[in-house]
Structure of LIM zinc-binding domain-containing protein:
Amino acid sequence: MGWLSKIFKGSNHKVSEGGRDRRYGADFLGNYPSSSWDTFSETEDIDRAIALSLAEEDQKGKRVVDSETQLKEDEQLARALQESLTCESPPHVNRGSSAKENGHGTGNFYQPIPYPYSIGFRMCAGCNTEIGHGRFLNCMGAVWHPECFRCHACNQPISDYEFSMYGNYPYHKACYKEHYHPKCDVCKHFIPTNAAGLIEYRAHPFWSQKYCPFHELDGTPRCCCCERMEPRDTRYVALDDGRKLCLECLDSAIMDTSECQPLYLDIQEFYEGLNMKVEQQVPILLVERQALNEAMDGEKHGHHHMPETRGLCLSEEQTVSTILRRPRIGVGSRVMDMRTEPYKLTRHCEVTAILILYGLPRLLTGSILAHEMMHAWLRLKGFRTLSQDIEEGICQVLGHMWLKSQLVYISGNDVASTSTMTSVSTSKQGMRSPFERKLGPFVKHQIESDASPIYGNGFRAANQAVVKYGLERTLDHIRMTGSLPY
């Protein structure tokens, strides 16, 4: 209508879209200070505009509503029009992952921005009360009082222009980073983002240890047993052959020949329970890495060995250096005062000794010893010379079976076969540490997931045969044919 445009000429600001057109009474200007127009002239213009408007309505046949409700609506619209003359239009608000206030500063001239269409229509998502006139936030698909839009972590209002989301909850960016941004388990810092702005890290497939990718290249040592990387705030024990041993693995590590004897008795009983008793007393010696490598070079049997040999079944006469006394941990977490002595092997049968690398946890040492004991059993029972994958595969199966029997005992599981239950012996004294409960499945997983064609594929083929035909029938077939049953 013509009078409406007249009133707006005094201001460059517009009423926000969505307001409904209302008529108002003649007392509109009496409630607000006048603008730069002449008061008398304005009143006269408004009266004339009203008269014209009413005349237009009458000509069109429309009925003018003169009620108390209409007057209230007119007063609301009049108040909004007057405020629009003194307040700037609200800034445009974008929805998304940033929190922006729809408001103005609190200086002498600027007042909190009123939204005339907010009356009765905008409810705060935080306190569920009407927002009315004043500043509000528009984010997360809702509107909020500024003091009601709070961080889910610290419960303080979010006044920043950007915020983070986790689930359906908003967070300060700093609070979100502290609670949900992954930290490196090695350097303890937040894992940095890559060039694409994404968080990139490495993780151990079994232990779920997360670390920055560059730690794989900066010389950070790993435990030689569990393969976890050494954290900056922890010192791994340095063995004299260059290996590093974490403190948890050190807790159950077998460090000299005498400590290995109870474990040897346990595995002998395990073999007896399988009706595979080893009749001869084969010497079991714990040795350093150098002594193990030298003995392997002197062995003429020609067995295939892993890149890092941890055990060896000998058939030749030779002299090896065995660890006589457990070394102590000295300054700088280094092994000190290791006492060794030469041990001359004499051939009385097909097996002269079994050598095991020192410094490995009990469960890992036991699985290696059970593996080498199978080599000894095959030779003492007169089995023909087998292909590497067949012999190493069936030996891995026996190491795997012994390990499973230990895990049954450690977990307290009473559901076990008769053969595995016979392996309970003197080496299982006292409760095992929580870490050993995790280390056992890791060692078992290493055997099962080995990718090498000799040990890995050999184990899986032999284990499949044992599962299908049983251990005794599988061994009989190997004895007669030199191959696995299929």
Observations:
- The longest strand covers residues 319-325.
- Residues 2-84 form one domain.
